[in-house]
Write a structure and sequence with these properties.
Order of helices and strands: HEHHEHHHH
Strand content: under 5%
Number of strands: 2
Helix content: 55-70%
Radius of gyration: 18 Å
Shape: globular
Structural class: mainly alpha
Number of helices: 7
Largest sheet: 2 strands, antiparallel
């Protein structure tokens, strides 16, 4: 169990870009990438994995996952949306992300995105605590003939839970298109 606790801590689930991390000036693409690398680099699976690239940002802009960028500079609102995209892309398709963020992008001037994003951060922090408790408690429930088989069962359990969460999220995205 101690190994699992160490593993969970090494995953840095708490890493988040906060509104306070973002300078009060618009940033160029290289500065955006640097900020995201600094914030999320310890959360990547290995050193080769990129948090964010110019191609990714350009694809988000072309795919209309972000409201239009002005003079090649990204505002605080753009950065908060890119952070949400970063969180969503691990589970949802680009089309589902576009659908999810469409209302925000269309109403960016009417939404207090800072407040909305802070609500997301509070939820994320609570999710991390619940997740760690849940994973740890499930470990005690799993018994097999060998440690390797126990680990395989644990992996299967985590993937199954992940699939259920993903499918539920996809159905909620589908509901956004029908409202």
């Amino acid at each position: 169990m101690e190994k699992l606790t160490e593993l969970l801590n090494k995953l840095h689930f708490e890493n988040q870009l906060t509104p306070d991390d973002i300078p009060n000036i618009d940033l160029y693409m290289d500065q955006v990438i640097q900020l995201f690398e600094h914030t999320f680099n310890s959360s990547t699976r290995n050193e080769e994995e990129k948090v964010l690239t110019k191609t990714m940002i350009n694809n988000y802009a072309k795919g209309k996952l972000l409201f239009p960028i002005k003079q090649k500079k990204y505002s605080k609102e753009h950065l908060l949306l890119i952070s949400l995209i970063y969180q969503l892309k691990g589970t949802l398709s680009i089309n589902d992300i576009k659908t999810t963020l469409n209302g925000i992008n269309e109403n960016i001037n009417e939404i207090d995105i800072d407040s909305f994003y802070r609500q997301y951060l509070d939820i994320a922090q609570s999710n991390v605590a619940h997740f760690k408790e849940d994973v740890t408690s499930r470990l005690t429930e799993i018994k097999a003939d060998t440690k390797e088989l126990e680990q395989v069962l644990h992996i299967l359990s985590l993937v199954h839970m992940s699939n259920m969460y993903r499918k539920t999220a996809e159905k909620l995205v589908d509901q956004l298109t029908t409202t």
